[in-house]
Write a structure and sequence with these properties.
By secondary structure, this protein is an alpha+beta fold. It has two helices and twelve strands. It is globular.
């Protein structure tokens, strides 16, 4: 029984170890993104999903958008709402720069002011959570 409890604790620890924290500019935790694309708020309640195929869903599994392989972000009607460039530049649908996702996970607005942190999170996923869709 003791071995089973230790094994369970280790498995639980490993599942949380891969979860990436989303933080505000003052390092307060605002949420989490799990490796499988599950988006959670700071209370660990699931608020959305980013599926492996790029489909973005809310907590009720309703599709609210898409991430295309080229970094294009679309809403549920397939209208482009923005772009995430390979260098981390985030643009709206009119190609105006609205922010930046740095390699170290720092998220900045268009004026280069830090608005949050998403260390270890894919740039497209960070852009979706900070700029394009609101997950409550």
């Amino acid at each position: 029984m003791k071995k089973l409890m230790i094994l369970g604790t280790l498995l639980l620890s490993f599942s949380f170890a891969k979860t990436q924290t989303i933080q505000s500019s003052n390092y307060g935790t605002t949420g989490y993104i799990k490796p499988d694309g599950t988006i959670q708020n700071k209370s660990y309640s699931t608020v959305g999903y980013i599926k492996p195929n790029g489909t973005i869903q809310n907590s009720s599994y309703t599709t609210i958008g898409y991430i295309k392989p080229d970094g294009t972000i679309q809403n549920s009607s397939y209208s482009t709402v923005g772009y995430v460039k390979k260098d981390g530049t985030v643009q709206n649908s009119s190609y105006s720069t609205i922010g930046y996702i740095k390699d170290d996970g720092t998220v900045q607005n268009s004026s280069y002011s830090t608005i949050g942190y998403a260390k270890g999170v894919k740039k497209e996923w960070a852009a979706v959570t900070f700029f394009f869709f609101r997950f409550n």
